[in-house]
TrEMBL record:
GO molecular function: copper ion binding; electron transfer activity
Matches recorded under SUPFAM superfamilies: Cupredoxins (SSF49503)
InterPro entries per UniProt: BlueCu_1, Cu-binding_ET, Cupredoxin
Domain named Blue (type 1) copper: residues: 50-157
Domain of life where this protein originates: Bacteria
Residues spanning the signal sequence: 1-21
Protein name (database record): Blue (type 1) copper domain-containing protein
Coiled-coil intervals: none
Source organism: Reyranella soli
Keywords per UniProt: Copper, Metal-binding, Signal
Length: 161
């Protein structure tokens, strides 16, 4: 149980942004959206290493509210970023786990996560964030908790007219 609590704490610290570990800089695929301008609500269920959403079609400039339900036993995140941004975020998540094992942290704030293209959700919980999309190549949604992305917890974001 102690390991599980420590692991959850590490992951909470690591859930910063796919674009940057130290600031709430939005990824290149858009920016936090205005809740009053939401045109669509997308419900996503997360279980162990899978999302109910396999791919996402959006329009350039569209504002979407994501509602992430965690029906699994592990924490999950849903982040938006390019393939390269997600690769960097996965490295940061791994580094955060190593720092936590050594008793440190990197000052990440969960409050910054929605500002940076994502949301964290603990088992049995639901979390939301609003995002306005900007046409970007190689954009995807993903869970970057170590091992989850590699096991297929990701999907493409395609821009349609």
């Amino acid at each position: 149980m102690l390991f599980r609590r420590s692991f959850v704490g590490v992951l909470a610290l690591a859930a910063a942004t796919p674009a940057s570990a130290h600031s709430p800089t939005p990824p290149s695929g858009g920016r936090p959206g205005d809740p009053a301008k939401v045109t669509r609500v997308i419900n996503v269920v997360a279980i162990e290493n899978a999302f109910s959403l396999k791919a996402l079609d959006v329009r350039d400039g569209e504002t979407v509210r994501f509602v992430l339900h965690n029906d699994g036993v592990d924490p999950h995140e849903l982040t938006i970023g390019t393939v390269a941004e997600h690769a960097e975020h996965r490295k940061q998540m791994k580094e955060m786990m190593e720092l936590q094992k050594k008793g440190g942290h990197a000052g990440h704030s969960m409050a910054d996560m929605a500002q940076s293209g994502g949301v964290w959700v603990d088992p049995g919980k639901t979390a939301t964030f609003v995002w306005t999309f900007k046409r970007t190549a190689d954009l995807e949604f993903a869970c970057n908790i170590p091992g989850h992305y590699e096991d297929g917890m990701k999907g493409p974001i395609r821009f349609v007219k």
